[in-house]
Design brief:
By secondary structure, the protein is an alpha+beta fold. The chain contains 6 helices and 17 strands. The strands form 2 sheets. It has a 9-stranded antiparallel beta sheet, covered by helices on one side. An 8-stranded antiparallel beta sheet has the order 10-11-12-13-14-15-16-17, with helices on one face. It comes from Bacteroides mediterraneensis.
């Protein structure tokens, strides 16, 4: 947890580091942008502005903790990431975490992410030995993401957010959009559709046009017996070889659909990709 005292001691070392995603460190902002920030966070202290891609990012201290807020150049707020104590998580999130496989892992950091037009997200970073995971929950305890690799949580510009929503609703007209986030792969959208939680990935080309890459969802334990015979055989072969199957995910793509089988091999997560016909597409062991 990044309390203010710790943040203050680390200021000099942080100043010396420059992220490759940031254009300028410690920049001056317009009076309108500063006014928009002051209106939203009147009690903020130690405010430090940086240019981060197409946004202005304000690092500031509020309630004794370090936070980050993103604004567009014209002063429109898009996202804030708050550092919070573990015990301030919603009870549903605490209960979901306590019932998870990570309940005994060490909690390294906890954040609350507020986005314009999206539901609140709670992020718990945990570690056990050399293994680290980032768990993202909705306020009702729903697990949105379970990442082994992650970077900064980056917002999507308001105009592009509208474009993404339109594309999702065109493909999944009954879906409920839970979250939209940009990462190194593209723009990731979490939705609820047909009783399932799905991850939809879009990528931008050089001109900013969005293209659908895949839609992925987890296969439940109750559905395992209904998988194609070739996929079931692949699961049987893995089990008899001594590997433990953790999860099976289904991917829909423009080039064909496939299953990703996650196995635990010597304490590390590995993947085997199997087509709907049972043919192994790729092995990453």
């Amino acid at each position: 947890m990044k309390k203010f005292a710790f943040w203050a001691m680390m200021t000099l070392s942080v100043v010396s580091l420059t992220s490759c995603d940031k254009d300028d460190d410690h920049v001056r902002v317009s009076a309108d942008l500063q006014a928009a920030f002051d209106s939203r966070y009147p009690n903020a202290s130690r405010v430090d502005w940086e240019r981060n891609g197409g946004f202005y990012e304000a690092e500031f201290v509020g309630n004794g903790y370090e936070n980050k807020a993103w604004f567009t150049p014209d002063g429109a707020w898009v996202m804030t990431e708050y550092d919070i104590p573990f015990n301030q998580l919603p009870q549903a999130v605490l209960d979901a975490f306590a019932a998870s496989a990570y309940a005994t892992w060490r909690v390294d950091d906890v954040d609350m992410i507020e986005k314009s037009g999206m539901e609140m997200i709670y992020v718990i970073e945990v570690e056990s030995g050399e293994r680290e995971y980032e768990l993202c929950y909705l306020e009702d305890g729903t697990l949105l993401r379970e990442n082994t690799e992650w970077g900064d949580h980056l917002p999507v510009a308001p105009g592009q957010t509208a474009d993404v929503k339109a594309l999702v609703m065109e493909k999944y007209p009954q879906a409920v959009i839970l979250d939209i986030e940009e990462d190194r792969r593209g723009i990731e959208v979490e939705i609820r559709d047909g009783g399932r939680q799905k991850e939809v990935l879009y990528q931008k080309d050089a001109s900013g046009v969005l293209t659908w890459v895949y839609t992925m969802y987890e296969v439940s334990r109750y559905e395992m017996n209904n998988l194609p015979a070739g996929v079931q055989q692949a699961l049987t072969d893995l089990s008899t070889s001594g590997m433990r199957v953790d999860d099976v995910d289904y991917f829909e793509t423009a080039d064909g659909n496939y299953y990703r089988i996650e196995v635990d091999k010597w304490g590390a997560d590995k993947y085997i990709y199997v087509g709907e016909n049972g043919e192994t597409v790729q092995v990453n062991l």
